[in-house]
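At your convenience, could you comment on the folded chain following this short note?
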Amino acid sequence: MAKARKEELDLLAAEASQQIVFKLPDAENATVHALRAIIAARAFKGKLLGCRGASSLASPPPAEDGAAPADPPPAEADKGTPEVELREVTEAAVQQAVDWAYTGRVSVSDGNWKDLLAASSQMGVEGIAEAVDRHFAEPGALTPGRAAEVLAAAHRHSAAALKARCLAVVDADWAGAACPEGGGFAQLPKDVLQEILARDTLRAGELAVFHAVVAWGKAQLARERAAAPPAEAA
């Protein structure tokens, strides 16, 4: 790990075009630098190329008839270091994602799992989402009272395995998952709540479902009112 990062810094100092820069406007405009070849090829499987604000890292296509590839257009050649803007992520989470690209290891805890999911979804790092899922596979990690919170994050960040794990917990213990003390279903988007209610494996009585849906509706109304602009005085 330390050796890989030292080699990276040496390469970055030698040639700026080797870099990719992650810009984090929601983290006090912090930046995280990395070797773009490792990030694009080893960890992100090309998905990073579709990120908002990223210059293309792909090699120019080969010329026809075996001729040498043409030089890139001047506009492309002058772009310099590619930059990728990531929103609503912490600097620490992005740095951990970069470290994962070098080592294949990431440390997931109850304090950083949400940030890691946010970083992994924007950067296309499936391995980190898998690590978060393994964290919640540990005995006692995913209690019914936490299921809705984790489910909302898994859905938002397209962590399919983690979402399936959460749904299984909800199926088995509706009352525990719906408990308002842990936030309950009020924090779920509408389409996820509908998905839960449509599941054949759900173990919940009609009255319990009714109360949970009413609580969800009240919470949604409260959020909409809080987000509405204040009415102008007559």
Summary: The first strand starts at residue 19 and ends at 24.
